[in-house]
Amino acid sequence: MTAIKRQIIAAIGAAIVGLGVGTCVTTGLGADALGVLWEGIATRLAITVGQASLVVTVACIGLVAGINHRHLGLGTVINPIVTSLVTDLVIRYLLVDSHMGIRVSMLVLGVVLIAIGSGIAAAASTGKEGYIALSLALAEKCAIDVAKTRMGMDLVCFLSGMLLGGKIMIGPIIGILLIGTVFKRTLAFCELKFSRVLNE
Fold first, then answer.
1. What global pTM score does this model have?
2. Which DSSP symbol is given to 71?
3. Does the pLDDT of residue 16 top 90, yes or no?
4. What share of the chain is helix, strand, coil (3-state, %, to 5)?
5. What rounded mean pLDDT belongs to the chain?
6. Closest CA to 52 of 30, 37, 32, 31
7. Radius of gyration (C-alpha) of the chain in whole angstroms
8. How far is CA 97 from CA 19, 26, 103, 106, 113, in A?
């Protein structure tokens, strides 16, 4: 029963990530830094952004397997699927006002949702999505704060994506500044709160 509870919680977190990504995309101001990398890879390799995301995910999983495979599991496969489905639904049905102030506010909300959802999914410990797993594995391996690790990874993704041909947008910049810190706090809060529920 505990395993089922964990996966339900992880799926809820993944859905919140999808809600955040979809919200960011509908603003037209960009999503997180990882999206810039996907776009850059897609441009260079003449593949779709979805295919580029798969390439990055497989690379992350390979790195995590070599660093600390305990971060991988069923959620590594299920969570990205849930995120993708929710993202597509949000993009299809959410309409964002064209006023720049509203778009920026929605963008910040979307970025915060990405961080919160990532923290919830990670706290469930069913196996993290590739990029989240890599950030946690590197933080442990290098004994660096997870917020700083995530911020550093986002910056590397952003710069790499730019060099590969990705577009400069405000979304990834806000993501670099916010996601690491909000993710760390959400993860710590949820690990504390979920321990009782998951052990019942």
1. 0.84
2. G
3. yes
4. 80, 0, 20
5. 86
6. 37
7. 16
8. 17, 10, 7, 9, 19
User: Above 80 in pLDDT, residue 10?
Assistant: yes
Burial of 5 (0-12, 13-18, 19+ CB in 10 A): middle
Q: How far apart are CA 68 and CA 54, in angstroms?
A: 20
Residue type, 182: V
**Which positions ≥6 away from 57 have C-beta within 8 Å?**
80, 129, 130, 131
Cα separation, 24 vs 10, in Å, equals: 21
Residue 81: partners with Cβ closer than 8 Å, 6 or more residues away: none
What digits encode the pLDDT tens for the residues 69-104?
888 888 888 888 888 888 888 888 888 778 899 999
108 falls in which pLDDT band (50, 70, 90)? very high
What burial letters (b/e) apply to 35-67, b meaning 16+ CB within 10 Å?
A: bbbbbbbbbeeeeeeeebbeebbeebbeebeeb
CB 31 within 8 A of CB 142: no
